[in-house]
Design a protein that fits this description.
- The chain is an alpha/beta fold.
- The chain folds into two domains: 304 residues, Rossmann fold (3-Layer(aba) Sandwich), CATH 3.40.50.300; 212 residues, no CATH class.
- The protein has a six-stranded antiparallel sheet with strand order 2-1-4-5-6-7, covered by helices on one side.
- Helix 8 runs antiparallel to helix 13, helix 9 runs antiparallel to helix 12 and helix 19 crosses helix 20.
- It is elongated and about 140 Å long.
Length: 588
């Protein structure tokens, strides 16, 4: 339930705090005072698109904040938990901020946690449902009609099962089509794939061999030069005359003599020994290297042929030995598909058959629930019609079998109405005006109130185009819905306002030369004055005030007895005379 709405710098609103209560809340005021702006602020709060032109002139940002009490709402708490939002005390605070700069980004928070607009919308849809003449148009959408019937039937679980089963069937069919396509492609490419696999397999490529081949080819090509250079090094180190090791050997005696006289120079002897032994090791290593270098033209030719083969395959199959090896693996895998496809297809066909059977079973359960609920929904909607000024209205739920079961079931759902005596039932879009459509929606809401889990319903001037007794009946219906939900209605009708549990008035004024809107909670004489104004008389006259008091008294008493009267007049479970079956729609 929405307990408080705070709006700052939004459109013409400077700053308002709107307290709300359980039951039927009504917002009234002169045309243009800003009533619908408050609904717009609510829409922004629950994820609707944010633009800089929403910010009040002269302000740097608009802020909308709403406080909700969750009560017993396990689905909503699960939704919050899944998104990492804490709500231990049962209070949820949504906040939306829109900067005035065109390049700025709107921000949103839930209980102080920054969230995206999509998360805000997910949570917002679970908290508030906005209905206006525009939203009533959604009743013309077959998907909306189907969802309403499923909600009334308590068949959301069955509908979800059908959607899952249809998804599983689609996935199974896709797997079959994918395997067939890959098999067919492999068959067309079989000769090429066999050539690729054979060529790469026979080459016996080894990752890293390119560098090894390059190094060996370089050594073989320069064998004579390498042996000559190695000989020069060995000769310089330990030849007959003037060699490095010979010269170093002559240093042994003077260093030994130095150490005998001054033992502190022992470190010099250590350095000498290390240098001498290192040069000896160098000489042995170079000599051994020179002995390994051979002039082998046959081996050089073999290495060059291998280098050419590796270069050709690498260039042909991906630019590296690793890529070429992967190409070979892929070719062999495609070829193996030709051998395994038949068995795999049999397994997949069995999966498709099982998925088809599961979908059929799930769809039959959903169809049964819809058929059972359709006739009951017809009776209950028609029982609401007289109380909404549609005394001659007839309501029909048509279930038309589909050629193929889809994600939404085995049938299409269509609502048809006949709102005048002697007229055949036709689709809502062909017979209902905006006001009539809003009342049909209200009738459905009144029936679905007990099963609808959204705690707060907003009705934005769904009373347009009606008045008099019908207005009273619509007000009674709203108050009936308010027995199960918090209802917030924007209205211009005194018949509806007089039935409110909580009445708020919005007025337009000016602050610092800028138009603004302010709100006031009405009670006692203030409420009498507002009802008198809405009745169209002089709000200060005794006659207008007396009429307003009568309207308020009638609203309280009428609302109290409306539900019982409708319940008493509701038909029993016997079929309607002249009604259209939910299974076999009447033509026309």
């Amino acid at each position: 339930m929405l307990t408080e709405l705070r709006i700052r710098n939004f459109a013409i609103i400077d700053a308002v705090v709107l307290p709300l209560a359980p039951g039927l809340n009504v917002l009234s005021g002169e045309t243009g005072a800003g009533k619908s702006i408050i609904v717009g602020a609510l829409g922004l709060l629950v994820g609707e698109r944010a633009t800089a032109d929403l910010v009040r002139p002269g302000a740097d940002r608009a802020v909308v904040e709403g406080t909700f009490e969750l009560g017993d709402a396990p689905d909503l708490r699960t939704l919050l938990d899944e998104r990492g939002i804490d709500c231990d005390d049962g209070v949820l605070v949504l906040k939306r901020e829109v900067p005035a700069s065109a390049g700025g980004r709107a921000r949103a928070w839930i209980n102080g946690t920054a969230v995206t607009a999509s998360v805000l919308a997910d949570v917002g849809r679970a908290l508030i449902n906005v209905h206006g003449q525009h939203e009533a148009q959604s009743l013309l959408d077959p998907a909306a009609q189907r969802r309403i019937l499923d909600a009334f039937a308590g068949a959301q679980a069955q509908a979800a099962a059908v959607a899952r089963a249809h998804g599983a069937l689609a996935a199974a069919r896709h797997a079959v089509a994918d395997l067939v396509a890959r098999r067919d492609a492999a068959q067309k490419r079989a000769d090429y794939l066999q050539h690729v696999a054979r060529e790469i397999t026979e080459a016996k490529l080894v990752e890293g061999e390119e560098q090894k081949l390059d190094d060996e080819a370089r050594r073989l090509a320069h064998a004579e030069e390498l042996r000559s250079l190695a000989g020069e090094v060995v000769g310089a180190l330990e030849g007959e005359d003037g060699t490095v090791l010979g010269t170093l050997g002559a240093l042994h005696k003077p260093l030994a003599a130095l150490q005998r006289i001054d033992p502190t120079v022992a470190r010099l002897q250590e350095l000498y020994d290390a240098a001498f032994y290192a040069l000896e090791e160098l000489s042995r290593e170079v000599q051994a290297y020179g002995e390994t270098v051979e002039h082998d033209p046959a081996r050089l030719a073999e290495v060059e042929r291998r280098r050419d083969l590796v270069f050709r395959l690498v260039k042909k199959y991906g630019g590296s030995i690793a890529a070429a090896l992967e190409t070979g693996r892929e070719a062999r895998a495609e070829l193996s598909l030709l051998d395994s496809a038949a068995l795999d297809l049999r397994d997949l066909d069995e999966s498709v058959s099982a998925a088809e059977a599961a979908l059929k079973e799930a769809a039959q359960a959903l169809t049964k629930a819809r058929q059972k609920a359709a006739s009951r929904l017809e009776r209950e909607v028609e029982a609401q019609f007289p109380g909404l000024g549609l005394e001659d209205g007839r309501f029909h739920v048509v279930l038309a079998a589909r050629a193929e079961t889809g994600a939404a079931g085995a049938e299409d759902v269509e609502y048809r109405v006949s709102l005048n005596v002697g007229h055949d039932a036709r689709p809502l879009s062909r017979v209902a005006s905006g006001g009539e459509l809003a009342r049909v929606m209200l009738a459905l809401k009144a029936i679905l109130a007990a099963v609808d889990r959204v705690p707060t319903l907003i009705f934005d001037e769904v009373d347009a185009g009606i008045g008099g007794k019908v207005g009273q009946q619509v007000g009674d219906a709203m108050r009936g819905v308010a027995a199960h939900h918090q209802v917030f209605a924007i209205t211009h009708l005194p018949q509806i306002a007089s039935r409110a549990h909580h009445h708020i008035r919005v007025r337009k004024g000016a602050k610092d030369g800028v138009t603004t809107a302010d709100i006031e909670v009405l009670d006692g004489d203030a409420r009498v004055e507002e009802i008198a104004r809405m009745l169209g008389g002089d709000a200060d006259s005794a006659t207008s005030r007396a009429h307003a008091r009568e309207q308020l008294a009638a609203g309280a008493h009428g609302a109290a007895g409306a539900g019982a009267a409708r319940a008493a007049s509701k038909p029993a479970t016997a079929p309607r005379a002249g009604g259209t079956s939910a299974r076999s729609p009447r033509r026309g």
